[in-house]
Amino acid sequence: MMLMRVNMRLVLVVLCGAVLLATLYWGHCGDISLRPTVSLLSESQTALSEIECSINGEYSVSCRRDRDQVYLPFSFIHKYFEIYGKITATDGVEKFEWSHSYSKVYHPKKKYDPRGTFTTFENYNVEVRDRVKCISGIEGVPVSTQWEPRGFFYPTQIAQFGLAHYSKNLTEPEPRIRVIDDGDKVLENWIVSQDALMSRELDPELKANVIRFTTTDQPASQVRARLNISQDFVLSMDLMLKPNSSVTVILQNKDKKETVYLHYVTSTQLIYAQEDHIYYGVGLEQKWRRLTRDLIIDMQKGWALQDRPKRKSPRNKFKVSGLALSGAGSVGNVRVSSSEHMFHFFSAARWLVSSQRADGGWPVPARRRLAPRVPDLMPGWHSAMSQGHAISLLSRAYHRSGDSRYLRAARRALGPLDRPPDKGGVRALFMNRYVWYEEYPTKPPIFVLNGFIYTLLGLYDLHYTEGGRAASPAKDMFEAGMLSLKTLLPLFDTGSGSFYDLRHFTLGASPNIARWDYHATHVNQLYLLAGLDPDPVLLATARRWEGYMQGRRAAHN
Amino acid sequence: MMLMRVNMRLVLVVLCGAVLLATLYWGHCGDISLRPTVSLLSESQTALSEIECSINGEYSVSCRRDRDQVYLPFSFIHKYFEIYGKITATDGVEKFEWSHSYSKVYHPKKKYDPRGTFTTFENYNVEVRDRVKCISGIEGVPVSTQWEPRGFFYPTQIAQFGLAHYSKNLTEPEPRIRVIDDGDKVLENWIVSQDALMSRELDPELKANVIRFTTTDQPASQVRARLNISQDFVLSMDLMLKPNSSVTVILQNKDKKETVYLHYVTSTQLIYAQEDHIYYGVGLEQKWRRLTRDLIIDMQKGWALQDRPKRKSPRNKFKVSGLALSGAGSVGNVRVSSSEHMFHFFSAARWLVSSQRADGGWPVPARRRLAPRVPDLMPGWHSAMSQGHAISLLSRAYHRSGDSRYLRAARRALGPLDRPPDKGGVRALFMNRYVWYEEYPTKPPIFVLNGFIYTLLGLYDLHYTEGGRAASPAKDMFEAGMLSLKTLLPLFDTGSGSFYDLRHFTLGASPNIARWDYHATHVNQLYLLAGLDPDPVLLATARRWEGYMQGRRAAHN
C-alpha cells in the first residue's frame, strides 16, 4: 500500500541555516567560560564556548561546550537520526518538542467488526491526496495518477475511498442537509432567462416532481438559482441531461473577488480546467443518475490541474453562490450536505461490481516499477491489496444493502488471491512453504507486509459476512495467511522499526525500511489482529513496535 | 561466539553529572541573548539561553538555544542513541570526537589463506580476557570461567588461543630470545645452597646437557639463579620433576618494593594464590615436558583469583629477578623470550587431539543458558564454532608439522557438524531447507551468525588443506553452508546494524541485535568471504554493514 502521510501529527521544523552557521563559526573555539566577560552573566545564564565536533572522522559540526558537557545542534541531530522537533509555546513559555516519529498509533477500543469501520480509515481522506487526479464525474470514484500521470482507475485507491467514507459515516455526526429543491416541500425560486424554458413535472421513473429545462445556445440563456451556502459543500441532485448540456456551480471567495465555476458537462472527458472554469464530464447516457460532488474537492483538483498551489482551508473561504442549468434535461431533489459518505461508498461498490473481470480480478492498468533488477509489473497486474480491500468493501456493501451481487463479487475476488502470479494471481510462497498474498506480485516476490495484512482483513470480512461458516475458502485462506504472518512477522522487525517488505531477502539488496506512517500502519494492523487471534506474537510485536516510535530499541548483546 | 570488546578503539566518555545539571537549571529559561550583558561578549562568544526539551512527551532535558537553533547535551544523545564521544586535544586545540561505533573493521589485504593468519586473530589476546581463569600448567591452554565459575576447558576458547598465537607468529617480528642456560654455550651461574645438590649431565632422551638438582625439605634449601630481565616475560624450560618439587620464578616491581613468587609445583591443582605467592600445578608425571609460561599472565591471573584490581601495563613495571628449583628433578634449555607463539599454538593442537571424543566432538562441559523459554544446553553439548575453530587450528597444525594425526582429527571433527542436535550434533535447518551449523545447538535453533561463518572457515580450511579435491565431505559441507549464508544473510540486516542471531524468528521474541564488536566481526568475516566467493551479496553486505558503523542507514520508503 502506498500511503500519504495523512497522520502526520507533528510539523517538521527544519532549522535551516544552522549548517551555514557552523561554517561561519569555524575555528573560533576560544573557551569563553574562562574570560572575564562571563562573570557579568547572572547565574541562570551561561556563556558557552564553541567546540568543533568531528562526526565519525568524516565531517565537522559546530557545537557548544559548557565544561565537560558538549551541546550538539538539533539541525545536525535531525539530519543524522531523522528525529523531528519544533519549538512550541504554552502561556508564553517556549519548549522544544522532540519527536522520534511523526505518526500515531490507534489503539482499538473494541474487537474489529467487519460491519464496522475499516481499521483506522475514518481518519483517511483519500480524495485530497495529490495522487488523486480528481473524482470521476461519471463513476464518482477517484482517478489515480500514482504511477501513470494520465490517470487510471486504481482499484486499491477506489476501495480505500469507499472504505474511508463507510468508516466516516459510522464515526462522524449525522450530516447537515440543506434541501434546495425537492419538488415537493422545498421549492427554489429559479430564475429563467427570457429564451429559456423551465417546468415542473412528475417523473414516472423517480415518482417525484422534477424540473425540466431547455435553454438556447446563447451563453446567457440559463435556468439559475441564487444561493448563499457556506460551510457545507457536497452538492447532489438527480440528473438526466440531453447532449451539450451542463450544470454549473458558482463558488465565490468570501474574502476577495474571486469566482470559480464548476461545470458538470455531458462529455466523457474526465476533467478540464482553464483558469476559473473547471469542467467535469458526467457522461453521455440519457438516463437518471444521481450526481453527488464535493465542490471543494472538485475546485482544488481543477486548480491542481493548472499547477496552482494548494490552498489552506478553502472550505472556510468559499460559499456556493449559484447554480445554473444549460442545454436541456431534468433535475430533481437538489441539496447541499456536509457529507454524503454512503453515496461515495456505494459509488465505489458499484464501480467494483461493474469493473470486476470474469477471473474475479480488478487488473491495474498501470505499469509499476518496484525495485532495480525486478521486472516491472506490466499493465493488467493484480494486487492482493486491491482484491482484499475490494472484498472488505463489497462485504460491507452486502451487509448494508442486502444485495447479493456484492457478496458474489466478493467471493469471485478470491480467485486471484489463490493463484500464483504466472497464472494471473498474487499468491506467493515464502521458501515454498508460507502463503503470502502479494500487494505487488513481482518476480521474485517481495512480501509487502501492510498490503498482506489488509488482504487478510478482506478474507476475514468475507468469512464473517458469510456467517462464519465452519469451512469456506475465505476462512481457509485467512487461516493459511495468519499462519504465515505469525511465522514471518519477526522477519519484519528491525529492532528499531519495521521493514516495509522483505526485498532484502529476495533480492539480496539493501532493506527497505518502512517510514513512520507505514510503521504506524503495521502497528495499528497488529493491534487489530491481536484482537482476533490470541497468539502472543501479535500483541507483543505491536507493543514493541509502538515503543520503537518513542525511540526504544531492541536490546543488543 | 562471545567476544570481548578487544577492538574497542575509542574510549567512551560518559559525561556524568549532566543530567543532574539539567535538573538544577530547571526553569531558568530567560532568553539571555536579549539582555545587555550579552553585548559584552565578543563575536565568537555566544550566550545561549536555556530551553526545556521535551523528549517524546515522556521526560525533559535541559538544552541550550541560540535563536532558532536548539542545542542538545551529548550526555542525553549518548544515552538515547548509544553514540560514543570524547573530548580530545591536538596541539592544545580541543575537539569533540563523535563515534557511531567503537569497533574497527579490517579490510583484508589479500585473499584468505588457510595456511596464514586466521581472520583477524592476530589482534586477539585470548589469555588476558577476564573470562580466562588462567593458563593450565599441565596442558598449557586456557581455562574458561565463561559459564561456569569453577573453570573448564572450552574448546572454542582453546582453539582461539591457539589460532591467535598462530596468527601473531606470522605477523609479529621474530621474538627476542635470551638463553639463561642451554647446558652448552650459555651456562648460568647457579647458586646452590649448602644442603642442596646440583649437577650437569647429558640426558639420553633430550640428547642435551641438563641440570639435575636435589634440595632438602628446608625452605632455604634451593638451587637458585639471580636474574635481571626486563621487557620479556615468556619463560620456558625442559622440565622433569619428582614429587613435591617446584620451580619458582621471582618477579620484582621496579618502582616499589613488591615481590611476586610464581610457583610451578608438582600438583594437579590448576591455580592457587595467597597474597604474593601464586601456584600453578604442572602435574605429577615424571617425564620430560617443556614448560612455557607467560609470567605476566600468570601473575595477573593470580591477582584476579584474589579479586585484586587489574593493573595497567605490568610488563613495564616488573622484572624477572630470580629462579629457584626445589625438591628434585631436571631442568634444561632455560630461556626467556618476548613470545613463544608456536609453543602455545601446538599446546592447543595437542589438547584438541588428546581431548577429541570418538564421535569427533569436543563436548563443552558447562551448562549454557541462551534465552528465556529455550531449554538450557546441558553439559556435553557440541558447538559448531568449537568444531570449526578446531578444524582451522588442526589444519594449520598439520600444515606446519606434517603430522597426520592433526589432519585425521580435523576430518573426524566434521562428524558433529553433519548431525542434528538430537543425535549429538549441531546441524540445524532453516525452514527445513538451509543447513546451519549452530554455535549453540538449542531447540529451537537460534542461527547465530558469526559462529556459523567461523565454522564455514573451518570447512574451507580443511578442504584447502586436503588439497582442494573436487569432492570431499568438507567441500560439500562448506558449499551447502555458503548457500545458506548467501540466502539468509539479508535476514541479519537491521538496516542500521546486524542481528547476532535469528532468535526473534524462531522464538517470536525481541531481536537480539549484535553489539558493535560483533557487528564488526560480521563485517570482517564478510569481507574475507567476499574474497572466496564472487556472489555480490557478500561484498555489498559487507560494505553496507561497514557504513552502518559510521551512522549510515538503509533507506526508508
How do the helices and strands line up, and which of them pair or pack?
Two copies of one chain form a homodimer.
Chain A: H1 18-24, E1 46-55, E2 59-66, E3 69-73, H2 74-81, E4 84-90, E5 93-99, E6 132-135, E7 142-144, H3 155-171, E8 177-181, E9 191-192, E10 197-203, E11 208-214, E12 223-230, E13 234-241, E14 246-253, E15 259-265, E16 271-274, E17 277-281, E18 289-294, H4 295-305, H5 314-317, E19 318-326, E20 328-337, H6 341-355, H7 384-401, H8 404-412, H9 414-417, E21 427-430, E22 434-437, H10 449-465, H11 473-488, H12 503-507, H13 516-530, H14 536-548
Parallel strand pairs in A: 15-17
Antiparallel strand pairs in A: 1-2, 2-3, 4-5, 6-7, 8-20, 9-12, 10-11, 11-20, 12-19, 13-18, 13-20, 14-15, 14-19, 16-17, 21-22
Helix pairs in contact in A: 3-6, 3-7, 6-7, 7-8, 7-10, 10-11, 10-13, 13-14
Catalytic activity (chains A, B): [heparosan-N-sulfate](n) = [heparan-N-sulfate](n)
Organism (chains A, B): Danaus plexippus plexippus
Domain D-glucuronyl C5-epimerase C-terminal (chains A, B): 359-546
